[in-house]
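Workshop exercise sheet. Pairs work together: one partner reads the sequence aloud, the other fills in the structure field after running the prediction. Swap roles for the next sheet.
Pair: D.N. / O.F.
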Amino acid sequence: MIEPGHIAIVHLTGRLVDGPAAGAVFETTDVDVALEEGIYHDTRDFKPLEFRVGEGHVLPGLDEAVLGMADGETKTVVLEPESAYGTVDESAIVTVPREELEARSETTAEVGELVESETGEIGWIVDVSDETVTINFNHELAGERVEFEIKILETHATETGHDVEPADGVGAS
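Structure field:
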């Protein structure tokens, strides 16, 4: 049974819960799932996620969900925004003068384009008018309920000898 401080090695698949894209996979560590769902990218290394439970290396809801699980066990959990990618922070949605943004980035502002703030944060353009550009710097899944299927591949009560780092997309923000 997994306890805080244990090393968990898991396969997981994340799906959207609500809206028109409900059921769509946005994250997986399993190459077979990635191929089945049409989200495979050859630049991505699909491998099990390894993390020390309770140390904030993954989303809070994932840390909590694996507690008490055993090797070989599979569980599906729905995470509320607070336990996943956070709630929408309205102060992270900013409107700037279009001319200023285009001069600084040397590009034409278009909805969906990624931009970088002066402090290095990445956001995407959500609205463009003749005079202004609105940019959202929240995580793209902020405010969303998400579902994760978690399969425990193995657990260790002690070190495994591997470095433990957050995985793309599922690490704590």
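Discussion prompt: The longest strand covers residues 146-156. What would you look at next?
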